[in-house]
């Protein structure tokens, strides 16, 4: 059942990443899965091999990077269902001093005119996470509001903070209460504990972090790390099967997570102009970087080498988790690997 998928991952490991787990679901059942590689392969920037290189497994845990944005989005949409938030209300209602033109809808579609990123850890090296968060949500608008599309981690940090204020709890608690707890995702969350560490894939060599070797068990994203490991744009760790359950829930209309009409709005083209894909609320639709031949699918990618692709018309959910930034970022081939997995999913759906 998984021979083709096994071959695809074998072709990419360790050339593209040191570890990879792929799971393809067709019509609600796992049609193929494959695992390849080692959770920790390299000891340093030069690619020195570790003496102990634990093998990846189906239940390995990966840093999802920007796929975390979908968990933040689900929290915000659940709060909107309860009337605690209005997607078209100025976020200044929650963040005093914010530009009155900025709304949650614009933040979720990356059309709020905010800069792509802000290295708040370097700007405020001695500050605590709370002070850094205050500075992040005070980031001024520098581009046109309402479009064109400009991908912004800063905007999703603001979304996460608005969720905390409206939900009356930290973002990690809200994700636990409203997403992972509802769906039974026991291996998904921020800041994984020591017991989970042996199952976590390593990411990048970062000598500025405490501890020897490559980052493992801490969020890779520098801004999220500077905010204490929990942020609206990054920080969630998960297994492939947990992410599959999350994707399947969206494919099937929301289940216990969200109402069908809410999911329909989430995956509707919101009309953001200037992107290489259409954009829903938090999700990309037809993103050529991840969907391959599944051109109508929605989902998101993560900088660490992860992707979630959901194609309701073909009854498909496709998960690929890798650590393509281990030991350094910028390795070639992750796009091709994502496309190959998506192509195999299309073949399975048609067979």
SSE map:
Blueprint: H1 3-12, E1 19-26, E2 29-37, E3 62-63, H2 68-81, H3 104-108, H4 120-123, H5 129-137, H6 153-167, H7 171-183, E4 189-190, H8 222-226, E5 236-238, H9 240-251, H10 260-266, E6 278-279, E7 284-285, E8 298-302, E9 306-311, E10 316-322, H11 334-350
Antiparallel strand pairs: 1-2, 1-10, 3-5, 4-5, 6-7, 7-8, 8-9, 9-10
Helix pairs in contact: 1-11, 2-6, 2-7
The fraction of residues assigned to DSSP E strands is: 5-15%
**Radius of gyration (Å):** 19 Å
Number of strands: 10
Shape: globular
Secondary structure tally, helices: 11
The structural class is: alpha+beta
Give the strand order, joined by hyphens, for the main sheet: 2-1-10-9-8-7-6
**For the terminal residues, how far apart are their CA atoms?**
12 Å
Oligomer: single chain
Could you give the order of the helices and strands? HEEEHHHHHHEHEHHEEEEEH
Largest sheet: 7 strands, antiparallel
Q: Would you identify the regions where 5 or more consecutive residues have pLDDT less than 50?
A: none
Describe the structure.
This protein is an alpha+beta fold and 351 residues long. Helix content is 32%, strand content 13%. It contains 11 helices and 10 strands. The strands form 2 sheets. The protein has a 7-stranded antiparallel beta sheet, sandwiched between helices. Strands 3-5-4 form a 3-stranded antiparallel beta sheet. A hairpin with a 2-residue loop joins strand 1 (19-26) and strand 2. The longest helix has 17 residues, at 334-350.
């Amino acid at each position: 059942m998984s021979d083709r998928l096994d071959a695809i991952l074998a072709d990419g490991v360790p050339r593209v990443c040191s570890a990879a787990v792929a799971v393809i679901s067709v019509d609600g059942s796992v049609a193929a899965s494959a695992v390849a590689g080692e959770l920790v392969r390299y000891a340093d920037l030069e690619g020195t091999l570790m003496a102990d290189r634990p093998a990846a497994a189906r239940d390995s845990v990966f840093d999802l990077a920007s796929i975390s944005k979908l968990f933040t989005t689900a929290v915000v949409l659940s709060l909107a269902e309860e009337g605690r938030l209005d997607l078209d209300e100025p976020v200044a209602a929650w963040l005093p001093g914010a530009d009155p033109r900025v709304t949650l809808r614009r933040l979720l579609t990356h059309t709020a005119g905010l800069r792509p990123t802000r290295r708040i850890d370097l700007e405020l090296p001695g500050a605590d996470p709370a002070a850094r968060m205050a500075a992040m949500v005070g980031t001024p608008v520098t581009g046109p509001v309402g479009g064109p599309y400009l991908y912004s981690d800063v905007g999703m940090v603001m979304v996460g903070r608005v969720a905390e204020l409206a939900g009356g709890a930290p973002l990690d608690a809200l994700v636990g209460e409203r997403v992972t707890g509802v769906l039974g995702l026991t291996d998904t969350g921020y800041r994984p504990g020591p017991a989970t560490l042996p199952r976590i894939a390593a990411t990048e060599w970062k000598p500025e972090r405490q501890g020897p070797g490559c980052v493992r068990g801490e969020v890779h994203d520098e801004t999220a790390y500077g905010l204490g490991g929990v942020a609206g744009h990054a920080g969630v760790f998960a297994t492939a099967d947990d992410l599959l359950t999350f994707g399947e829930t969206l494919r099937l209309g929301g289940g216990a997570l969200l109402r069908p009409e809410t999911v329909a709005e989430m995956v509707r083209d919101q009309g953001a102009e200037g992107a290489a894909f259409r954009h829903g609320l938090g999700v990309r639709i037809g993103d050529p970087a991840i969907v391959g031949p599944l051109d109508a699918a929605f989902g998101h990618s993560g900088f660490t080498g992860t992707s979630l692709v959901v194609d309701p018309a073909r009854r498909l959910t496709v998960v690929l988790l890798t650590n393509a930034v281990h030991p350094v970022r910028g390795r070639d081939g992750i796009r091709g690997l994502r496309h190959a997995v998506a192509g195999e999913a299309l073949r399975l759906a048609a067979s």
